[in-house]
Amino acid sequence: MSLILSNSQQSPAITRKERPLPSEGKGQRFESSRARHPTQKQKALFRMLFPVEVLAAFLAKLVAKLPAKPVAIIAIALCLAGVTAGNAAETVPIKRASPEAFRPSIVKDAVEAADWMAKSLAGWGYKADFSLESLKDVDRFIDEEAPDGKPKPGSHLAQQFGAQIFGLGAYVGETIRRQGEGQWEGNDRDTWPEVTLAVRLKSGTVLWPTQRVLKRLENGPENGLYPYGVVILSE
C-alpha cells in the first residue's frame, strides 16, 4: 500500500538561492565560456582541415568560371573577404599580462617609497644612492632626528611619522635587496602589511626592513642599520 503525505507533512522545497552549488558563480561562467568557444587545438585542427589559402584559391577560380552575374560575384567575393579576415583575426598574438601586474600592492608601495625616501634624504643632505655605505647616513639621520628614540619636535621624522618610518624601511630593504640580488615579498591581506613586508635574498636569507628600522629607533646605535646590512649580506 502506498502512503501519500499531505502538504503539511512534505519536506519544504530547497531553493537554489539558499545555498548555491559549487559550480555556480565564476566557475560556471568560466566553464560555459570554454564550452562556447573552441579551444586552440580545435582551432588549429580547423585550420589544418580547411587551409585558408586553398579555400581562397577555390573561390577565386569559381568566380572566374561563373557567368558575369553581379549578385553571384559579389556574394562569393564577400565570402572570400570574410575567410581572409577571419584568418587574419585568428593569427593575432595574445598579449599576456606582465609579472608586474601580479605584484602585491604593498610591494609596489615599497618600491615607490624607497625612491621617495632616497630623494628626501638627498635633499636633506644625506647620502642616499642605494649603496651599502649609504646606510651609515640613514643611521646618522635617525640619530639626529630622534636621539632618544623619539622624533624631535619640528624634525623631518616628526612629520608624518608612520610614512617616514615606512619610507626608511623601504629604502633599507631596497638597498639590501639590490646588493644581495633579492626580491620583495608581501601580503596585502596581512593586518599590518607595512610591518610584515620582507625581502628574500638570493642566499635564502629573509629580512623585515620596517621592523629593523623600528628596532634601530628603539634601541639606538646598538642596532645600527649599516652593521646589520654588512652582516646579512655576508651570510
Written description of the protein model:
Helix content is 56%, strand content 3%. It is mainly alpha-helical and 235 residues long. It has two domains: 37-90; 101-233. The protein has a three-stranded antiparallel β-sheet. The N and C termini lie far apart (84 Å).
Short description:
This protein has 235 residues and is mainly α. The protein has 10 helices and 3 strands, in the order H-H-H-H-H-H-H-E-H-E-E-H-H. A 3-stranded antiparallel β-sheet has the order 1-2-3.
Compute the number of helices: 10
Number of strands: 3
Mean residue pLDDT = 75
The level of helicity is: 55-70%
Radius of gyration: 33 Å
Give the biggest sheet: 3 strands, antiparallel
Please write the string of helix (H) and strand (E) elements: HHHHHHHEHEEHH
Rough shape?
Answer: elongated
List the helices and strands and how they pair.
Layout: H1 26-36, H2 40-49, H3 52-65, H4 70-90, H5 105-123, H6 134-145, H7 161-180, E1 183-185, H8 193-196, E2 198-200, E3 206-207, H9 209-219, H10 225-233
Helix pairs in contact: 3-4, 5-7, 7-9
Which characteristics define this entry?
elongated; mainly alpha; disordered N terminus; single chain; 235 residues; 3-stranded antiparallel beta sheet; 10 helices
